Amino acid sequence: TVSVLYWQQQHVMSVQRHQSVARQELERLRMDLAQRESATQRLHSENTTLVHSIERVRLDERQKRFTAENALRERTVDLQVQVNALRNELDRANATTAELRHHLETVERENADLRNQAEDGRAAAVRVAELTRHVDTLVQEKAALQEELRGAVKADRCRVLEGKVEGLTKLLDERDTADEATLRKMQRLLEDLAAKGREVEEARGEASKSEQMVGEYSAVVDDLRSKLRSETATTERIRQRANAEASDLRKKVSERDAEIRRLTEAAHDAEHDMRQERRKATEYQVAMEELRNELKQHQQHLEQTRAELAEAQRLEAAAQDRWRKAQLSRESNETEFAKERVIAASQAKEIEQLKSANATLEGVCEGLRVDLRHAQRQLDDTRSDANQELERLRLMLADANVKSRMAAKSSGAPS
């Protein structure tokens, strides 16, 4: 074990030396990586500034190109939109007048229907008066039939009471027979209890004899218990000594196992650290190679952006030339804009005239709408009154039919 411990200590020292060398190499690689990262960030910032400048030049060129063209298009489109809006307003006004005429025709037809329904209601009222007279006669007949039924009901009640008295007498007879049966059961139980009392007296005599025998046996058992206690005390002392020695041995074995475990874990940790350091070194090498490739790509991109900047400067000069030409063409187009303003003023006058005509039409339509609402409310009121009257007539007719059937059944005549 001493040789193994010495070998493990030597191995741990060698591992620590390798770790110190690896940490120094790692620190050097980190410094080199930080320098390269600063260089790449500087190249990236230069690249972004060039890209932003190119984008600004392109946006300025597009804006200058499209502003002159969109001005004329927007003005022509606005005038066309206004003309189309006026035409749509006239079409809507014509459509609303046609709808109002159609509504007036429907209202007139509904008023005619309501007049017909009112005449039908008057005829129904006459029929209801006739039905009420018939119902009064039926009520008088019903009162006479009820008097006859009262006499018949009294006779039926007497028969029911007689049946109840007969049922109660039968229940009393059944209860007397049940009481006699319970008395016989109680007598049998008393006889059984007397027999069991005699058996208990015999058992008490036998128990006194057994108690004497138990006293003799208890003295012998006490002697045996005293001997057993002394022997168990000696065995307990021997057991405690053996347990103490075994616990000491277990502690020593556990301490040795813990020491061996600690040394093996330290060796495994050292090996794991070495593997991680080697893996990190390879990762740093791969990262350095990737940084070199990225640096080459940035250089190529920088050359490309310089070429694009030269092209953008050329395009800017061409755009300035086109801008000068556009200013010259704008001066020639201003005369056309003046003509279009005159046309727009005439169209505005026409629009005002159309708006005034539309306002008058809206006033007429509003009056027609008010008349239509008033006629609709009158129609709804008359319709609800007619429905209520019809429902009341139906209920009265149904009640009269029921009463007539009941009267026919009570009298025995066919309904």
Number of helices: 1
User: How many β strands by DSSP?
Assistant: 0
Oligomer: single chain
State the order of secondary-structure elements, H for helix, E for strand: H
What sort of overall outline do the alpha carbons produce when their principal axes are compared?
flat
**Approximately how much helix is present in the residues?**
over 70%
Q: How far apart are the first and last residues' alpha carbons, in Å? A: 126 Å
Overall pLDDT level: 66
Q: Uncertain segments of ≥5 residues (pLDDT<50)?
A: none
Coiled coil: 69-155, 365-403
Region (Disordered): 231-250
Keywords: Coiled coil
Features:
single chain, 415 residues, mainly alpha
Please outline the helices and strands.
Blueprint: H1 2-411
Notes on the structure:
Residues 69-155, 365-403 form a coiled coil. Keywords: Coiled coil. Residues 231-250 are annotated as: Disordered. The chain is mainly α. Helix content is 99%, strand content 0%. The chain has 1 helix and no strands. It is flat. It starts with a helix and ends with a helix. 0% of the residues are buried. The mean pLDDT is 66.
